[in-house]
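B., you asked whether I could sanity-check this one before it goes into the benchmark set. Here's the sequence:
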Amino acid sequence: MTTGRTSEAPTLAGRGRFRSMLSPTGLLVLVFLLSLPAVTPRLYAADEIEYENKGGKGGTIGITPYAPFIRSDRAPTLEDYVDHFDYVIKLIGEDHVTLATDMFDGKTKVNWATPWYYPEITRGAGYGTRRVRSLVLDGLTQSGMDVDERLSVYEYTYHMQFLPRSMRPEGRTALAIGLGAGLIPGWYAARGVRTDVVEINPDVVELAREHFGWRPSGRVRIEDARRVLREAGESYDLVILDVFTGDATPGHLLTREALQDLRSHLAPGGLVALNLAGSLRTETFGTASLVKTLETVFASVRLHPTFDPGEGEGWGNIVVLASDAPPPPAEASLGASLLVHPMARPAVERFLRTTFRFPPGTAAEVLTDDGPPLDLRDVWLRERIRRGLLEATEWSVLS
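And here's what the prediction gave me:
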């Protein structure tokens, strides 16, 4: 979308003011407290957006997602916001629309999903040939789904689906620790695998249901996973551990003691799949320590990076498979006949069967409840991830 400097920021827009405000110099105009009568009738109408020669003057109309002016009869939903944005973009073109906020306290984040308080979860919609709905926690993207195709746009999702399923095709029960948008648990449920879910954040459960189409196929527990794992309970053919928060996995779930508790919930021949961000080339101590810790609990530990460890600094999403017996190697045809989103397919096809082993003698230590957490062992990696997010994410989400 077009950007520029602010030339005027009126509080209310009267009929006809839009034409005069759309500067031929292309200056950005911020129009606060804007509502659209074609979507939600209000006192301050914005039908004057339909101005002549909309593409010739080069101006931009800004919309602020201010909840009380989107709906007056109830708290607006995410769809209410998107309806407004869609209306303007289809009317005058995306090059002439910007989003803005009048909250300048230095810590407010614009939250379209829950607009009445500081945000925790929000959604981004892309316009063009693809519309992607994202789950964002504390400014960190957790999941992304093509709204039309209902498929994940991130390659790690397919690694967490295809690899465990291909190696334990007979599995009929799964425990998903961490729900996210529900794309991975939902995929297993659609294939007849009853999937119980443990998720610490009740808001995530509601967002997965409402905006990503997830439907539970088993028990859902809103609780810290470590407490659940300590309990004696059901054993599962598959345990899917995906509690990556965007820059790290909570360290208390990756100690030797936590992994021993997790192993006690595996059925004979069961498999654990773990998603994490790890480094395989630069500053590898944290990732190597996690692998060493896993090897004290499981007889077989195998790393499947979703990237080329030899390129750049060699870090990214890694899917780790752990079990009491070595799983079979991934078949050469794995993923070829399965549905993968076009945005993710190149990486899935290239890396799905890629494995990695640290060289002998790589520095590492076993992670325990009494020792320093993994969070302190991979600070370098977390800083890299945060820096990348700052460079790639709109300030309206982060600021």
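One thing to flag: The CA atoms of residues 255 and 368 lie 5 Å apart. Otherwise nothing jumped out at me.
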